[in-house]
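User: I'm curious what two different proteins look like when written out as structure tokens. Can you demonstrate?

Assistant: Sure. I'll show them one after the other, since each token string lines up with its own sequence. Here's the first protein:
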Amino acid sequence: MLVNNMDSNKNRLIIFDCFGVVFGEVAPVFFRKHFAPEEAATLKEKFFVPADLGLVTYDELFDNIAEELGMDKDEILTEWNSIIHLNEEIIPVIKELKKSADVILLSNAVESFVERIFEEHSLTELFDRIFISCYLKMAKPDPAIYQYAVSQMNKEYDEIYMIDDNIKNVENLHEIGIHGIQYKNIESLDILK
């Protein structure tokens, strides 16, 4: 198994991102389907930065997207939900890591979205704690959100890791004492052995 060689004497915290790690990406896939890559990235930022910060609700987010695209909101939601897929191969890895480390989720997301898909896939118990940006009114890569999540565990850790598919969310974490791991595939987690 992936983590058999992990030093059980070390007190570790392992933080997982949701989209692009536990689940596949949703927003980038949706916007790339409807727009050229540069415009897709711009629109994702336009709509999801406010949602990730809790400035707009789930309904307002999709009302805004529907208006921008000139599409029916229900059609968008149906397509959106069809994009969601669980990264099945990471689930046993997370379960194994939980045997010797604290494991939490830290995701940039709009209200109620992560909770809904976690319930649908029975994943809520997979993590010791779940932190969602919209409720915290801050989002990755702001160092404050990582520091907040760590502080809420009320422990001192020998090592802290953040696993995220977005390089922007992990590249400077060493400055606050967190080892950033860019997730590309399951082998990306070999460093946790």
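Here's a second, unrelated protein for contrast:
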Amino acid sequence: MSKIPGDLRYTKSHEWVREAGADLVVGITDHAQDLMGDMVFVELPKPGTRLGAGKECAVVESVKAASDVYAPVAGEVIAVNEALGDAPETLNADPYGEGWLFKLRPSDPASVRALLDASAYEALLASEG
């Protein structure tokens, strides 16, 4: 079973969100990286980009497939994890730590509460079986 940290919020499309003050750190879940396999390329949004909730904003590519990453909430990209350009495998090794994708300043900070908590995400994974 994939690791599901209890202090994060999740999307049905397998992104995670960590609150960092007024900003959010966004990545893909352990489940997502496990399904994809060895990561070989990451395309991140540019800082300053405004994202709509649920809109495609990044691409992660593995030896198996390329997959879109979706914005968990609306907001502005304020930073990206440049290190992933040289080391996309960090997504596999540490998806909830060094493998973060980008930081987002949410348009509506309360929108994070609408995302799944760890138990709801675990139930989603169980239902996908």
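A detail about the second structure: Residues 118-128 form the longest helix (11 residues).
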